[in-house]
Amino acid sequence: MFIAMNRFQVTPGGEEAFEQVWLSRDSHLAGVPGFVEFHMLRGPVAEDHVLYSSHTIWRSRDDFEAWTRSEAFRAAHRGAGDHKPLYLGPPRFEGFEVIQTVGAS
User: Fold this and answer.
1) Over the stretch 46-104, which tens digit does the pLDDT of each residue have?
2) Whose C-alpha in 15, 38, 92, 100 is 20 to 30 A from the C-alpha of 85?
3) How far apart are the C-alpha atoms of 53 and 21, rounded to whole Å?
4) Please, what sign has the CA dihedral across residues 3, 80, 23, 42?
């Protein structure tokens, strides 16, 4: 498995608008080979931002990378720069290979 994360530093007061952008968008992930699930996470509040992270789980890094080259990826990210006033800077990408998974008993 591969986990792809993007961290967003949202300016104070922009939380509702940021969340609405994500809740109302079409991610174009349904049916993409290797896609498992998506989560948008709200994190801690700092003095100058609220931390958010998008979190997708993929069957493999190859599946994720194939998606980044797809028309579905371009469609999902079309107009993403329109919301720059909500962020302190660009999203920060982090990718992780899963080396262990522990499930509930």
Assistant:
1) 999 999 999 999 999 999 999 999 888 888 767 666 666 788 888 899 999 999 999 99
2) 38
3) 14
4) positive
* Neighbouring C-beta atoms of residue 8, cutoff 10 Å: 24
The dihedral sign for the CA sequence 11, 16, 56, 85: negative
Which phi and psi angles does 20 have, rounded to 5°?
-65, -40
What is the identity of the amino acid at 39? H
Counting beta carbons within 10 angstroms of the beta carbon of residue 100, is it exposed (0 to 12), middle (13 to 18) or buried (19 or more)? exposed
Q: Taking the model in full, what pTM does it have?
A: 0.84
User: H or E segment at 68?
Assistant: helix 61-68
Q: Which amino acid is at 80?
A: A
Q: Which of 15, 63, 9, 18 is nearest to 37 (CA)?
A: 63
